[in-house]
Amino acid sequence: MAARAMPRVSVMMPAYNAERTIVDAVSSALAQTMAELEVIVVDDGSARPVAAALESVHDERLRILRSVANRGVSATRNSALAAARAPLVAQLDADDLWRDTHLEGLLPKFEDPRVGLAYANAEVHGHPRGAGLWIPDRSRTGETAVQGTFVSHPVDDLDTLYRGNPIPAPTVVMRTDAARAVGGYPKWLRVGEDYLLYVRLFEAGWRFAFVDRTSAVYRWPEPGRGATFDRRRNARQQLKLLVAMLAEHPTEPVLRAQLPRRMAEIVETHVPGSVWIARKVRRMLSVGPGPADKI
């Protein structure tokens, strides 16, 4: 039997109780016009093993790893990152999708040895306000909003990243060695773990590249699917993320300016009857909308 060819891209797919969507997600990866890939699905302790849900998918490029206990998305992605055989790794969650030319459109960006991460745009399905694109149409002129400030793509400065994450998660491709060198995904975070990885890649000196095309589909979280649907947990995780970034950069003004907003979100989501107080605090501090204002 001939040896399996080394892939150019390893697709990292964490999966937890995702049997309704995972076949479509895996199939969209395997259908790429750039076929030299492997799909590493890491079953994060699903009630029904992912292997059973994928028994109809017959492709030697599919690899399935399983954790008996649920460890969270960061640990699961790190398992895929450790197992990756390709020089590039790509993110695709078990409830998202790729268009068939997604990888074909991004890989040329890595011909520049300075580029450590490349990304594109994504459609957003199921958003409560009907949002159609992760990066709005305004990005066609090179701009999109992050915390009320319009910035260009690709992201090319740390202040932009410190304000918030403008990068569509299901479109990201990274250099494998670069992601490993900065420590991979922080296991202590269950929301925003990819964002902190992007920040650390940029801080390590890697440049980002952007392809102005919509080549992925992101499904908005809903009950039973998607960590960010839980507003209380999301607020706690976002505050934890900010505190971690402040610990590394305690004098960074862009980060320090976000602390009142994150504290207001904690009050709003954890204290009964406090939504109106949190809104007044945000207006007084001009820190922007919180979770209750987004739906």
Descriptive account of the structure:
The structure is a single chain. Mean pLDDT is 82; it is low at 289-295. The chain has helices at 22-30, 50-53, 73-83, 102-106, 158-163, 176-181, 193-203, 231-248, 253-256, 259-270, 275-285, and strands at 9-15, 37-44, 62-67, 88-91, 97-98, 115-125, 143-146, 149-152, 173-175, 207-219. It is globular. Helices cover 33% and strands 21% of the residues. The strands form two sheets. An eight-stranded mixed β-sheet has the order 3-2-1-4-9-6-10-5. It has a two-stranded antiparallel sheet with strand order 7-8. Helix 8 (231-248) runs antiparallel to helix 10 and helix 10 runs antiparallel to helix 11. With 295 residues, it is of the alpha/beta class. Strand 7 (143-146) and strand 8 (149-152) form a beta hairpin.
Tally the helices: 11
**Helical fraction:** 25-40%
Going across the biggest sheet, name each strand in turn.
Answer: 3-2-1-4-9-6-10-5
- Beta content: 15-25%
Shape: globular
**Main sheet makeup:** 8 strands, mixed
Secondary structure class reads alpha/beta
Summarize the structure.
The chain is of the alpha/beta class and 295 residues long.
Identify the notable features of this structure and list them briefly.
295 residues; alpha/beta; 8-stranded mixed β-sheet; two-stranded antiparallel ribbon; 11 helices
